[in-house]
Amino acid sequence: MLCLFCALVVSAQSQKSSLQQKAESELEDSHLGTARSLFIRAYQDYVNHGKVRQGVECAAQAATLYYKENEYQEAFDFLREVDQLINNKLGSSSERAAAHYYTSKVRMQMYVKLKRGASAQDHLNAMSTHAAQSDDEEIKNDMLYNKAIYYYTFGQTTKGNEVFREMATKLTAQKEYDKVDEVYKTLIANGRKSNSASLVDQSYKSYLHWKDSIQALKTAEEVNALKKQIADDKTAIDEKDSSLTVRMAIIIGLGILSAVLAIALVVGGIMLLRYILLTRRQERTITEANENIALKAKFISNISAQLEPTFRKLDSKQPEVKALLNFSQHIQTLSALESSEEEIVLEDTQVQQFCESIAEQVRGRIKDGITFNVNAPKMTASMNREYVSQILLHLLENAIQYTPKDGTITLEFKKKSPKSYQFLVSDTGEGIPEEKRDSVFRPFVEVHDLTKGDGLGLPICRQMALNMKGELSLDPQYTKGTRFVLDLQA
């Protein structure tokens, strides 16, 4: 009978293992030996998985089944083993107290069955201490029930009634009506089994009184619930009336908005058509402009190509003639680069070796007193060597020309990402004026004395960079002279 309420102290959130479920099934079928063995296995399995509290509950079941078959010594020995495990495995005092409650409870039940009141009282006191320390409300409720059973069993009816009323009041306040009902029925059954007519009569009268009071309480709760439901329904109706008014306003607003949107769509459609027509005109204009630019570039290139044989008949030793020949070649080179559609071929190149070879080509032209540094790592990069060489050589020749004595020229290589890198050519010369920085890469912007340069070197270098899907630019952050940055993709 006392085991009937073990479920009261099992946490609602805990999940039973398959071993525990099998043990409970065997117990329901009255296979006590098999059930006990399964409870012991479930206890060991829970402990192995760190679930000591659930394991102890299974151990208490197993010990109960021992003494039900009059194997009291085995039950006491097993409980000593469980207590030792609790002390070793559980860290907090509240957890240890909750676990020890179950083992003390089984001992108390055994002494009750053996009619050894003093020993049962000792363990009841221990249970009370453990329940208080456990801070577990369900254990405290179970403690009240076991106190009542103890007092009724040993004829202390007055104390039993006090504890029982305390327990019934507490569970009723918590609206645990089913548990209180089960407790009353159990007490009545206990009185019948012990042939105690007074206990049966008293328990039955208390039970009927409690049933009447609970029925009245439930009726009051139902009335209050109905009143609340009516109030909620009234509030909901008021809210719906208000909502309907708001919805009507929204519908009217949406109708107006739809009309405005329809007008806007018509106006937008007209504007879109005009924009499409204008865009098509602009596309035709841009196409014609590009065609004209291409024709002009081809015309200039053709003129240059036609004039070049004539220039070659002149004395090439004359600076003017030499300048005209170079200008003609540069025009043809720039025109060919701009109109080229050939795919640029990239090759894996040893960066340090490549940079050193470029440096060797210009070292002989560096003026005394100028320091020339090459900073390139030992690594491989994919590049078009011809274009990159021409660009770097031109940038270095410019740096040599404009760097004063005691100045510094630097050729650097930097890896930006796994698929991008850059070459940097910097000098400590006087630098390019701010107002000319935008025009240095644009051809034919200024009139040049061709004997001093035609201004096409940097435009040609930038076009080569663009053809390699790269970029050639001036570093605006560099203030010690001039720094050109050639960004390329690997």
Structural notes for this entry:
- There is one protein chain.
- The chain is an alpha+beta fold.
- Helices cover about 70% and strands about 10% of the residues.
- The protein has a five-stranded mixed sheet with strand order 2-4-5-7-6. Strands 1-3 form a two-stranded antiparallel ribbon.
- Helix 5 runs antiparallel to helix 6, helix 6 packs antiparallel against helix 7 and helix 12 packs across helix 13.
- The longest helix is centred in the middle third of the chain and has 117 residues.
How many DSSP-defined strands? Answer: 7
> Which outline best applies?
elongated
Tell me which oligomeric state these chains represent.
Answer: single chain
The helix tally amounts to 14
Give the overall pLDDT as a whole number. Answer: 81
Q: Helical content, roughly?
A: 55-70%
Strand content: 5-15%
CA distance, first residue to last residue: 85 Å
Largest sheet: 5 strands, mixed
Radius of gyration: 50 Å
The side-by-side strand order for the widest beta sheet comes to 2-4-5-7-6
The H/E string reads HHHHHHHHHHHEHEEHEEHEE
Q: Which residues form runs of ≥5 with pLDDT under 50?
A: 1-14
